[in-house]
Every structure is written in C-alpha cells, then in structure tokens.
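Data deposition worksheet. Section B asks for the primary sequence of the deposited chain exactly as it was used as input, without tags or linkers unless they were present during the calculation. Section C holds the resulting structure in token form. Section D is free text for depositor observations; keep each observation to a single sentence. Incomplete worksheets are returned to the depositor.
Section A, Depositor: J.P.
Section B:
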Amino acid sequence: MASLPQTTHLFRRTSAPYPLTIALTTEPLSTTLAPFSLLVHIRAVSLNYRDVAMLHKGAYPSAASANEIPASDCAAEVVAIGSAVTQFQVGDRVAPICDVANLTGEERDAATLGLGGNVPGVLREYAIFEEEVLVRLPKYLSWEEVNVSLFSSRDPIKRRIDNFVRWINGLDVSELTKQCARRTQCANASMFAVLVCIAAGIRPIITSSSDAKLELVKKISPKVEGINYKKQPDTTQEVLRLTNGRGVDFVINNTGSASIPADIAALRQKRGTISLVGFLEKMKADWDPSLLLNLMAKTATVQGIQAGSKLDYKELNKFLEEKEVRLNSIIDRTFSFEDSPAAFDYLWSGKHVGKVVIKL
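Section C:
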C-alpha cells in the first residue's frame, strides 16, 4: 500500500474586515483513520452562491464559522479506508452530503451541520469523512460533471417537490409532459433543475435579465422557454401566455421573498408548489401580506428548502444514471485549484450561466 499523504493544501476564509477572501495554506493531515472513516482525494469542487455570499457582510442569512474551509460540493476518490468500513473500497468515486446530519430527511430535531458553513468544507486536496455521510457517484460522468450533480444547499430538487416525487417513483413520463416548471434566474439551481425537468419530461420556463443568458440556456433543449424580466416586467402574464392560461405546476425560487406574490400568481389554479431555495436578491420584500390569500385560494404550498438528505442524493443519482443525463452543458467555467480566489470572484460577479467548477 502506498504511503498516505501527511499534509494537505486547502483554502480557508480570512477574518474580518469584510469583504473576506480565501487564503491558501498547508496543514497536517491525520494518517490514522478511525474504524468508520475514509480518506478521500478531492478531484473537483463546484461553487454555490452560498460560498461567496459568506465572504460579504449581510449577503448570507446565517452565521458561518470564522476561518473555516469553504464549499460544500465535491467529487472525490477514496484513497484509504478504516478497519470497519464496508460500503466503499479504495478507488471508489464518492461525495459527502452537504448537511452531514441529514441522512434520511426525517431528522427533525437535528441541527444543520453544513459543509463549508459551520463545519469544515471541501476546498482542499484531501479530507477525512465518516462512511455514513458519503454516497457513491455515477461512473459515466466526468469528475467535473458528477461534481455538479450534488444535492447542495442550492440544488435539492428531488423528493422535496411533490411533482418530482411522483416521477421519481415511476409515474409515466408521458403524463408529465403536461406539467410546467418556472425557474427564477439562470443560477446554479435553475440550470441543474432545467436538466432534471427535461429528463423527466417536464417543460421548464426560466427567467433572466439577460437575453444572452437565456439563449445559452435554450441551447440545452428546444423545450426550454425563457423570459427576460427587464423587457417583460409582468412575468406572470408571460408565464400564463406560454402555458395557454394554465399556469405552472411548481416554481423554484432562488431570488428571495420579493417575488413570492408573482410566484403564486404564476401557479396553476390548484395545488401548485413554490420552493424557496435561495436568496440572490436577499430576503427583502415590499408587498401586502394579504396577497397570501391567493395562496389559500389556490390551495398551494410554499416550502423552504435547504440541502437534500443522503437518501435524496442516492435517489437522484439513480435517476441520472437511468436517464443517462449529461451535465457538461451546465458547466460555465472551470478553474484550477490555485485560482480558487478567481473562481469565487467570478461567481460573485454574476456573469456565469450555470456551475463554476474548481478542478484539483
């Protein structure tokens, strides 16, 4: 057996003043594995808005640990296993779940332990994880592709949305072609959701302030519809036009609470779903609370979403493999590990359309 690395290169968030940065450092790596622990070599990391928001005062709604290793999404290779590990072998392709306390989705009293937030993240060469927080990754995808399939804090689509529950459990896809989904903004969650919708036979509608970004998204599939909300401020009317007056079955909202009234108005007449998955425009809103009566009238649901569970992640990977979904079309740009600060700056600039990946 080859000798194990004794050190690892990694990035940590700097201390105040804001804006923070990330700094490269070298730290010791334990060479003694606990019985249920695995040492993994991280091959690719994909960034989420959450990762860069933590560097800017007031941009992230929750407290993040100071000087912590950032990022939650990675694809890794197992290089060593503890004596009691049974689910994985050296050479397996794996990834940790974002919330390491969320194994089944039923841990109702467990506090969130989010990688890159209040526990060490994945922007490092090597890491040690417990067996129970790792999942096996699809073999047919490249390191960069499989890395962007993660159920990160921005990408939890499967199982938390009723419509997706139905098709993942085997409902005939031909019935789902009648369903529509609205995505707000061309961000990470939206781009991944577009691919999942297309694979499931669901028609996606995505919004952006940029015609250029919308054209890039439409190249993924002719089924994708786009709305430029600067040119068409009344996005609800455009959604209704595109759906022949019917409205959409669900909305994935990654902008924040300001658009909730418009989201409700865009829903079909009964039992639609709005999932709040992000805060690109922060959580500021200036609307009359009485508008929530429309939610009651439509018997619709607004639900908050964080990271999916380990069970969610495994079922998502199964779906991707069955449909042979390729993810390279939603990778906007790839950076080297040494250029990680530039990757963070690029994501913060908002110029991206899709995922920003760091390759190790």
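Section D:
The two ends are 23 Å apart (CA to CA).
Residues 151-178 have pLDDT under 50 and may be disordered.
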